[in-house]
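Journal club prep — side note

Before the paper discussion, L.F. wants everyone to see what a predicted structure for a comparable chain looks like in token form. Sequence:
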Amino acid sequence: MQLGPHHFSDPPVFLAPMAGVSDRPFRLLARRMGASAAVSEMVTSQQNLWDSAKSRHRLDHAAEPSPRIVQLLGNEPGALAEAARENVARGADIIDLNLGCPAKKVCSRAAGSALMGDTGLVRELLQALTENTGVPVTLKMRLGLDAERMNAETIAGIAAEAGIAMLTVHGRTRAAGYRGAADYDAIARVVAATALPVLANGDIRGMEDARRALARTGATGVMIGRGAQGRPWLPGRIRAALAGEPLPAEPGPAEIAALMREHVAALHRQYGPHQGVRIARKHLGWYLEQLGRGEAATRALRAELFALEDAGEQLRRLEAIIPSGDSPADDSGRAA
């Protein structure tokens, strides 16, 4: 797959943009472990909000390998184009527009997946981006607002006319949120309706899920979101398997424990000791599920780690973790 000057081996496997999850430390891990690309957390197009600590961190792409993909959130063409230009000046290689977020606080501002209800505005936004950025522009969307208003095929046509380089389609509507199963047949209809490369997204938690998604949809590649939480190695392993490359070993408990410590230390550096400790907790919870220690032991260790408030103490406790000899999780997320 080719996006402007950027080539991705087929089939590409991207890490999805996830607010509060796919920050720079997590993206760096996923890329190092073989993901084709890692999309940033969504960044608002309202530049007057960029002085907040949250936005400053989301605008930080230091040391990230190319291509750096920044996802923008907004509903005003001029502001979106200006935000895109500013992000390109800061190192973005590709700009992605968010038409997929189903969160109420986003949709209530007529942004994210709510935009799918206004195809005229979608056309204006996409044209503003493609005509003003000078880099490839991609689009991530859902199937539509709800089961009665599924218009992803229509928006795919608008995207192609506007010069969009690639689509990602999450196989649920805005109304569905994350309930039910991803509708791969609906994604297949989008694939059939466009000549653009399409990444299938939704319910991809292991290699067989990825193979099933590609077979059912005919998509160019896949994008992995929640399945990679606590498993930054997953996109890379899936990419290698699909490409027929030697498969990286599934990390065992010792490797996962070491990765936990590395990730937490990176979060402390990124956010500072106070905020870093708190942000690390959710990641630790996901990692602990991969150690294969059993439900009771995992619950006790999670409670102990979540109670810590000091960065040094958090790292020291992680250093003291001795991986068990139990089987690590398999690529579906269940204990092997």
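L.F.'s comment for the group: The chain is about 45% helix and 10% strand. Keep this in mind when we get to the figures.
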